[in-house]
Amino acid sequence: MRLPLSWALVGSLVGSMSAGAGQAAALGDDLQVQARTSVSTYSSSDGVQVTSPQASVQADLDSRTQVALRYDVDAVSAASFNYARSKSHSDGLHAVGTCKACHSSVDALSGASMNYREQRQSVDLQAQRRIGEARASVQWYHSGEHDYQSDSLHLGLDRDLADRDATVSLALQHGSDQVGSTIDSGYSGFRMTNKGSLALTQLLTPRAQIRALVDYGQEQGNLADPYAFVFIDSPGNTAIPIAASAPGLRESSDFGVTYKQALAGPGSLEAGWRYYQDDWGIQANTLDFSWSGQWHDWVLEPEYRYYTQTQANFFKNDYKASQQYMTRDLKLAAFSSHWLGLGLRGPIGSLFAAELRYGHYLRTDALDYSHYFANGPVQADTWQFSLSLQ
Fold first, then answer.
1. What is the pLDDT of residue 3?
2. Of 33, 50, 78, which marks where a domain is finished?
3. How many angstroms separate the CA atoms of 266 and 74, rounded?
4. pLDDT at 292 over 70
5. Do 58 and 7 sit in the same domain of this protein?
6. Any domain includes 32
7. DSSP-assigned letters across all residues of 50-105
8. Residue 46 domain-assigned?
9. Three-class DSSP category at 326
């Protein structure tokens, strides 16, 4: 991986943040600066490996104003599957490691002799200002890689009500993405996203609260994956790949409720449910459970999430004839997933705080994987370690 450059950039940024923290007292008693650096890793059963160093700095300019800057790098090896452990879909080539027979120009084949490298960098800049009982925020986010550029602007407004027993929140987001393709230099796609959300947080007792959230979103533009293809399995067909296609507009809405309860002694329990639907035919439900408890000077945080969705109305595992919209994108198939995580965070000495997190992801579905490069549903493990100045 091209990590030396990433680590050099992160080290430089952390160094500058440390210097800023040391100068805080000279700039004013209200100024407080916190620096944080972390490394996350992702490893899945389909051969994807991701290493993500991150550095951030947060500053309270005064009692009402806060700014934050974050820089991320995702260094990816392999792509959506592992060439050495995958199989071809073509007749007579259902053998591991034969993908290259059909896809000589695709840059996402990977394995012992065919390695894939990708690097994504992002910058996140946020500012928040308290105005009376309200808090206004603005956020700009940019992400870039060789075939994808993304920019988004977020505006938020929170208002405390009923002697701060309730909070109402409004958020608006606008995003624009420029999509390219390494296998087609002439391809240029554009996507635009607009989203609005409204949330209400209500304190039920001094130790319990509930939060309700409703979202509406709209995406338009080139919404199909430029690297996705389908094959029509019909008599006389020569199995020539056809680019996947999708509608140019997608509208979605979702509603969620989260309940949080403080427990006797140090600790809390949280449970949530979220329902999503869109005009592509997908309906999804998510259940979240987490617990937080004290262990000496450290906080232990196990969590579990269950997710299930229906398939898009134009998704098919196997196409017999051409139609207007076609996709075999696994994200648009019917599937369920389980996420089990465990976190541990606490102080290291008097200057630093550390956080270690592990998560395991498991997907289940009823797809026929003889039509896919992968050998079955994905399982993945993630690790994250972060260190921050207290």
1. 32
2. 78
3. 36
4. yes
5. yes
6. yes
7. EEEEEEEEEEE-SSSEEEEEEEEEEEEES-SS-GGG-B--STT--SBT-GGGT-SS
8. yes
9. coil
CB 41 within 8 A of CB 51: yes
Instruction: Work out the percent of the chain whose per-residue pLDDT is above 70.
Output: 79
Where is mean pLDDT largest: 87-101, 240-254, 362-376?
Answer: 240-254
Q: Confidence band (pLDDT; 50, 70, 90) for 236?
A: low
Which residues form the domain of 97? 81-115
Place of tokens 């797809």: 367
Can you give the length of the chain in residues? 390
**Host H or E run for residue 16:** helix 3-22
Same domain, 41 and 86: no
- Please report where in the chains the tokens 């403080």 appear, as a residue: 262
Same domain, 51 and 88: no
Phi, psi of 27 (to 5 degrees): -90, -10
- Count up the domains in the chain and report the number: 2
Cβ atoms 71, 7 nearer than 8 A: no
Shared domain check, 96 and 35:
no
Calpha distance 146→119 (Å, rounded): 8
Residue 389 in contact with residue 21, Cβ under 8 Å? yes
Alpha-carbon gap, residue 202 to 164, rounded angstroms = 9
pLDDT at position 182: 76
Q: Is residue 62 part of a domain?
A: yes
Same domain, 38 and 95: no
Q: Is residue 184 part of a domain?
A: no
Q: Are residues 26 and 92 in the same domain?
A: no
Angstrom distance (rounded) from CA 152 to CA 143: 9
What residue type is 133 in one-letter code? E
